[in-house]
Amino acid sequence: MNEIIVLLMGFLSIVIVNNLVLTKFLGICPFLGVSGRLDMALGMGLAVTFVLTLSGTLTWMIDHWILMKIGLEVARYIAFILVIASAVQLVEMYVKKFFPTLHENFGIFLPLITTNCAILGLCLFINLWGVDNLLEAVVLSFGGGVGFTMAICLMAGIREVLNLADVPKCLQGAPITLITAGLLALAFMGFAGMIKQV
Amino acid sequence: MVGKETQPDLNRTFFTGLWKENPVLRLLLGMCPTLAVTAAVRPALTMGLCVIFVLLCSNIVVSLMRNLLKPHLRILMFTLTIATFVTIADLFLKAFQPAMSEALGPYVPLIIVNCIIIGRAEACASKNTLVVSIVDALGMGLGFTLSLCVLAAVRELLDAGTIFDIRIMPQAFVPWTVMAMPAGAFITLGLLLALVNLFTRRVS
Q1: Contact by Cβ (8 Å): B121, B90
Q2: pTM score, two decimals?
Q3: Could you give the ipTM of this predicted complex?
Q4: Are B23 and B116 in contact (CB under 8 A)?
Q5: B4 falls within a domain
Q6: Structural domain of residue B154, as residue ranges?
Q7: Of the partner residues A81, A116, A171, the one whose CB lies closest to the CB of residue B83
Q8: Considering the domain boundaries, does residue B3 fall inside one?
Q9: Residue B73 DSSP symbol
Q10: What's the structural domain count of chain B?
Q11: How far apart (Å, rounded) are the C-alpha atoms in residues B22 and B17?
Q12: Helix A117-128, helix A76-98: angle, nearest 10
């Protein structure tokens, strides 16, 4: 029972309180680039959630069961980035083979995910927070993806409305998006301290 | 003779990175570290120096092996090269600047996925000679560091009233705590980009 509460708290914490995009600045590139339309944002969010869950779990396993056993922590970053790149490649091949329509829809996002800092960032944070339980690592990586999806979809919703607004010329494009993100972050600051920081 | 011919070209390559194609202010690359480490000038400068080091080394290596690269494996080779140098930079920081390494946290290893570095490897170093790649790396790296420092200076000044921990504002200054928080980072960068847009429109 106690374990379930810990997992639930971890999930809520990574989705809302320690949101990857709005408090840790991870995955800002797609957050600015792909948040123009709601359906694209949702596609990107789902793709990231999938890869994040997979690579968060895999890197935890490799870190704890291989690298720490043989004392090769120095090679951690190289191992992590290799795992992420291969995971993305595998997912792309799998989706292309078995879900061709899905591949057409979010095919362009998949290669981009390798250089999405949210993925490597969360793997590093899981390592930094000293998560020593496989289940916790899985929940945290899945929650990270859900948090990213939520943030990017919120942003896309706001930007669809923002298109109708009369924005001063020099603020158009990235600047107004960043300021909107700042206001969103301000709103999310209200959740800070709700759960003890992981 | 050859030196004279390539001189203006090198100059242009260098200054392109500083202003015309400034990675942060113009190309909007490398946003994560830009926002995450600019709460004060000192970590921003450290981050900038790390990026210059990694960018320089990876550009040199990629430029040297550009004729051996297989097209479908090149991104993998770039990433592995970058990851190696980032590990070196990270271990160096841990050994000689432990407090700074602690403060920067995972953002040093995150240089691996910094789009500036892989972007320069792809767009410049894999096509150009060693000298051009080095100059390009220096220009881009300096451009990145400068924009980070400007952003950090604004945020530190308004948050704590100091720059480099030296007090600038009068004692009566009320700190804008929000500047040190994520919201302050987003809004300051947004306004800075707007200012750059305004300025370039005036000039042109």
Answers
A1: no
A2: 0.87
A3: 0.86
A4: yes
A5: no
A6: 12-203
A7: A81
A8: no
A9: G
A10: 1
A11: 5
A12: 130
